[in-house]
Amino acid sequence: MSIFHKRFSDESGSAIIEFLVVALPLFIPVIWFLTSITGIGVGSYDAMQYARNLLRVYITSPSADLLQSRLDSVTEEYRQYFFPRDHLTEFPTYSITCEQSPCLTPGKRIVISVIFNQQNKSQPLVTTVSGEVDAWSGA
Q: Which residue has the higher pLDDT, 5 or 27?
């Protein structure tokens, strides 16, 4: 038996190479899937926090005169710092539904829905929160 045949007929370590050749291509789709799910999760979390902060500002607003400027302030904060990392195709929109008019009636329910689109997603994601107007609101 020659030294050449002895050196290359030994199969120790070949399982590692076979594993790498077979398993690595299978891990690529899994990694891609997990990163895309994480992106949706982060975007959904940011949208939920945006809706909660809009609701918090709304239900604690001391007057209807200050309400829009306070909502605009929260929106600008999210526009600058949070939503740029979420790969959105456009800035989220929100809608406000009141149980009674005027909306700032103490003890009445407010529902805020945030609608947003992420890149490569066919359906817009919607998150909805609700709460009651603060009893001390100065409507």
A: 27
Choose which CATH entry (3.30.1300, 1.20.120, 2.30.30, 1.10.260) describes domain 3-132: 3.30.1300
Q: How far apart are alpha carbons 73 and 83 in whole angstroms?
A: 14
φ, ψ for residue 116 (rounded to 5)?
Answer: -145, 150
Question: pTM for this structure?
Answer: 0.68
Is the Cβ–Cβ distance between 93 and 115 less than 8 Å? yes
Cα distance between residue 93 and residue 50, in whole Å: 10
What would the pLDDT profile of 18-43 be if each residue is shown by its tens digit? 888 888 888 888 887 777 666 667 77
Neighbour-count burial of 128, counting CB atoms closer than 10 A to its CB (0-12 exposed, 13-18 middle, 19+ buried): middle
Using alpha carbons, list the distances in angstroms from residue 113 to 52, 97, 119, 128.
10, 8, 20, 4
At 35-82, the pLDDT tens digits run 766 666 777 788 899 999 999 998 888 888 888 999 999 999 888 877
